[in-house]
Each structure stands twice: as C-alpha cells, then as structure tokens.
Amino acid sequence: MRLEILQVPDCPNVAVLQRRLEQALAGETTEVTLVHRVIDDPQDATAAGMVGSPTLLVDGCDPFAVAGEPPSLSCRLYRDERGAVAGAPSVAALRDALGLTARAGDDADHTADACCAPAAGADSAAASLGSARFRAAPSDPGETAVHQCILRAFAKHGAAPSMAELASAASPFESPVEEILTRLHASDVIRLGTSGLIEVAYPFSAVPTRHRVRLAHGGEAYSMCAVDALGIAFMLDTDTVIESSDPVNGNPITITVERGEPIGQPSTAVVFVGVRSGTGPSADTCCDYLNFFTDRPSTHAWADLNPHVVGGILGLSEAARLGQTIFRGLLNS
C-alpha cells in the first residue's frame, strides 16, 4: 500500500496526520510505503489532486474526497463520525479508508489532537474557526428544526423569528422551545442576550455589524464576521453582495459573490482570519478578528497593533472556501 501526504510547507497538521496513521497501522502486517510531497503552487496542487493541506492519497486516490471540492493550498478540515472537525482524519476514519477493521478506542486521543489550539498562521486560525463551528452544529432533530427556523428568518427578514414561529418549529418534538434555545446557546450554535432574545445565529447577527450582506432576492442581513459573510452565499445557494470596511483606514470594501466566486472591490481586498487565545463562544474569541481589509499592508498594520490575536491572511477565494466548508448544507440536514 502506498500512502502519500500532500502538504504545504510547514503545515501544522501533518504531524497529527502522521501520528494517527501510525496509530491506525499499529499491529497490522500490511506493507506500507509513506511519502511526503510538499506543494506550494496551485497548478501543482491541481495536478496532484490536493484539496487542502494535508491531503492523504491511498494508492493514488483520496479516500476523503468530497464531490465538487476544488484544488487548494489552504487548510483542509476533516469531519469525523461525530460531526467534530480537526486538521486530520480520526484514527477510526483512517482505518476505514485503509480497509482495516474498526478497533475499540481508536479515537481516544481525538480531542487532544483537534486543531483548534491557536498556532501561528492563517491555516491554524481557519482550522480553529472551522472546528469550533462544526462542533457547534446541532444533531438533535428538535434543535436542528429550531436552528433552521432561525436561519431562514434571518435570511428572509434580517431578524430572528418570533417565539410563536420558534414554538411551531419545536412542536413536533418533545422538548419545549425555551429548553431547545437554552441548549443551542450552551453549545454556541446561537447566542442569547440577557433578555433571552436571540442576538447571534452564526452566520447572522441581530444587531448591525461591520459586514452587511445583500441577497439576490432583495433581502439583507448582518453577519458576525468576514468568513460568515462569505459563507451566507453557500448556505443559501444564492449570489450576494457584501458591504464592509477596513478596520484600519475605514475605506469601504465591496465583495460580490457570484456563482460561488468572490470578486473584491478593491481587487486587492483580503481577509484576516484570527483567533484570540482562551475559551469562550466564537462571538468572543473569533468574530472580532475576522475582517476584510483593503490590502495586505493594511492587514499587517492591524496585526501589529493586535499581537494578542493569532492568525494570518487569506485571499478572498480561500476565505470563501472556508465559509463554504462551515455553512454549506446547514439548511439541508
């Protein structure tokens, strides 16, 4: 069996993937050859079948491929059987991909390896954001129904639904709507204010933010951050126009997302993806640190003024793919 790890230089998740491969193969007699291939050119990524770093090929094939996922040099996020996301597949997923039988305790170290620990660079910050948001996705049917009711209301009206609408969404299930809202808040799917009203339902904000998103059908809403703003187009499968501003110089930035492709005005616009050390909801640890900037020099100026924020710069296409990864399918589950 030939295993090939496709990676960008200094990818922080390669060590995690290699350790999990060693755990997955421990005690097996299968003859395995493992090679690393460092790729830093988009054309080389396309030719190799790399859809993010790290990508694992098993005898030349990507067992974790997702239909329609484009070639990429950005951080790759893997969802496990529990819905959690990390920078490498779980041991159980690797054994399945390698055609090996499942073993008890394969994922004992899953939590410790999650890539949400803040490390330097945009890829680690992006993995942190993606991991946190995926872990927060509801799996309970009642929670999912209420969550989707909230998202659709924001998409249509730019505001949270009424309690009557929420109660109607919860009615087929055993739990009262108040209990469901409390659980969604506790798992950081939404944020409730002190009055009990919905203030945040990622990607939406109930109060004005720096990022206003106009939808193709004419509605508009505010998003929590730049990545959330980009992700709305994929969640709703629609074109959007994002109006934002540079936190340093205040200059306006417009991002048009057409057929999944973001176009910036100015064309030099980029996204800083950052995370503050510590624990807490995404609204507190991430959202203030994911913004559009007019260009890279402005982004560097902001980063110099905020050394407590770990992160880096993503191009608009990379940031849009991150938003797509996080929010695509939220209304289809």
TrEMBL record:
<dbReference type="InterPro" id="IPR053717">
    <property type="entry name" value="MerB_lyase_sf"/>
</dbReference>
<dbReference type="InterPro" id="IPR004927">
    <property type="entry name" value="MerB"/>
</dbReference>
<dbReference type="GO" id="GO:0018836">
    <property type="term" value="F:alkylmercury lyase activity"/>
</dbReference>
<keyword id="KW-0614">Plasmid</keyword>
<dbReference type="Pfam" id="PF03243">
    <property type="entry name" value="MerB"/>
</dbReference>
<protein>
    <recommendedName>
        <fullName>Alkylmercury lyase</fullName>
    </recommendedName>
</protein>
